[in-house]
Specification:
The protein is of the alpha/beta class. The protein is built from eleven helices and nine strands. The protein has a six-stranded parallel sheet with strand order 3-2-1-4-5-6, sandwiched between helices. A three-stranded mixed sheet has the order 7-8-9, with helices on one face. The longest helix is centred in the middle third of the chain and has 27 residues. It is globular, with a radius of gyration of 21 Å. The structure holds NADP nicotinamide-adenine-dinucleotide phosphate.
Length: about 280
Amino acid sequence: MKIGIVGLGLIGGSLGLDLRRQGHQVYGVARRADTCAAAVMGGMVDGATTDLASLAAVEVVLICTPIAAIAPTVQALVPHLTTDTIITDVGSVKGAVVQAVSPLWPRFVGGHPMAGKAEAGLAAAEAGLFRQRPYGITPLETTDPDAIATVHTLAESLGAQVFICTPEAHDRAVAWISHLPVMVSSSLIQACLQESDTPVRELAQHLASSGFRDTSRVGGGNPELGLMMACYNRGEILRSLRFYQKQLATLTDLIEQEQWETLTTLLQASHDARPGFVEADP
Ligand code: NAP
C-alpha cells in the first residue's frame, strides 16, 4: 500500500519505521526540508517533501502533526487527493478533531495510538513503539465502513490492540488515564521544586530513583502535547482534576487525623485496582 505521513515527529516517524518494515511504501511531508532529509536518512520514509501535493497518489494519509494543526493540514491536503483516499490522524484528543475534520473529508477516520515517550521529535522515533499498546479508533455513525476497516487493519498490523469507541467516550476515558496523569505528574515536579531548603532539594534530586522516574515521566514530557490536551479536552480534564482534588483532600484528612486503618484500606484498594488498568510490572 502507498501511505502518506504528514508531520514527521515522534509518532509520525515511529509509524513510518513500522509501516515500511511491513513492505508499505511510505511518503512523508514535513514543514522543513531538513526534517524530510533526516526522515529519509533514518529509514522512516521512502521519500519526503514539504509539499502536500506529493501525496496525490497515496491510498491512506496519516496526519501526525500537533493537534492544533490537524484540521488546517487536512484542509490544505484535500484538494490534492482522489476521492477514495482515506485520511486518519493520531491526535490525542478526538472530539474536537473529529468534529472539525469529518466535514472536510468523507473518508476520514479518527485514531489515537496510545504510546509515547518523554522525548519529542523525529530523533525520538522508534520501531515497535505501538506493539502491544492500545489504539483507539473513533468513527462516527456516518463513517465509511471500508475506511474504518482499512485503518483497523493498519493499526493491528503495528501489533496494537484496537478499541473502537465514540470520540466523546475516548476523550472522557483518556482524560482519566492519560491527560490527568500528565497534569498530576507535572504538579508533582512543581511541588518538589517548592522545597525552600536548597540542600534538601538538591538531596532529593540526588535520591530520586525509579519511583520518581515513573511518576514524573509524563509530567516532564513534551510541554506542547500537555497544552494541547488541556486546550482540546478542557471539559474532561477539569472533570477528572476535580475528582482528583477530592481524592487528595481525603488522603490529607486521613493522614492529618492519623486514621491509619482507613488509609491502609484505601491504599490496599488502589493496589488491588491497578492491574485493572495496567499489567503487572516486569
Ligand atoms: P512531535 O514529536 O513534536 O512531532 C510533531 C511533528 O509535526 C513535528 O516533528 C513537526 O515537524 C510537525 N509539525 C509541527 N507543527 C506543524 C504544523 N503546523 N504543520 C505541519 N507539521 C507540523 O509530536 P508527536 O509526539 O509526534 O505528536 C504528534 C501527534 O501525535 C499529536 O497530535 C499528538 O497528540 C499525537 N500523539 C502523541 C503521543 C505522544 O505521547 N507523544 C501519543 C499519541 C498521539 P517539523 O517541525 O519538522 O515540521
